[in-house]
Amino acid sequence: MSVPSAFQLREIARHLDDGGLIAYPTEAVFGLGCAPLDPFAVMRLLALKQREVGKGLILIADTPEMLQPFAAVTAEEWDRIAADWPAARTVIVPAADGVPAWLTGGRKEIALRVPAHETARAISRAFGGPIVSTSANVSGRPAARDALAARRQFARADVRIIPGRVDRRARPSQIIHWPTGRIIRS
């Protein structure tokens, strides 16, 4: 399946602007997303996933520049972080002042990624900024690896399912803690 059409992307962006939730393909699994600065949308997403707010969330975006305002790192550090993107690599960095606790889980850090999946990037581009990206599943259940599995998990919820393919051989993104270099998930 190809990237959604320009019309479809505008509709998806409007849905996000209106506080809607989406399930969309990423590198290895479907993501569940919403507008990151809309607290009501984020709380609905967390309730739907049955996920604690204290776990924090990942933000993805089309470009590193869209994510930079959320990070409190030097320009040189940012250049090194951004040099590896797009990739299935999430980086945890110090959060900029004012980043909401519903994104950081109450910590002073935030997880960021520019995915290597064109549909996920196209959605961010159409929306004009980052979107939340957490696996499309109810906590404790397997992550959806196709649109049908996402639809089954969220059949009774108001989640717009975006068709597309994931790399079935791939694993969820690597997570690196930038300040220490520790690999949290390989």
UniProtKB/TrEMBL annotation:
GO terms for biological process: regulation of translational fidelity; tRNA threonylcarbamoyladenosine modification. GO terms for molecular function: ATP binding; double-stranded RNA binding; L-threonylcarbamoyladenylate synthase; tRNA binding. Its EC number is 2.7.7.87. The keyword Cell membrane does not apply. Keywords: ATP-binding, Cytoplasm, Nucleotide-binding, Nucleotidyltransferase, Transferase, tRNA processing. It catalyses: L-threonine + hydrogencarbonate + ATP = L-threonylcarbamoyladenylate + diphosphate + H2O. InterPro entries: DHBP_synth_RibB-like_a/b_dom (IPR017945), Sua5-like_dom (IPR006070), TC-AMP_synthase (IPR023535), TC-AMP_synthase_SUA5 (IPR050156). PANTHER family: SUA5, THREONYLCARBAMOYL-AMP SYNTHASE. HAMAP family: TsaC. Belongs to the SUA5 family. TsaC subfamily. This is Threonylcarbamoyl-AMP synthase. It comes from Guyparkeria halophila.
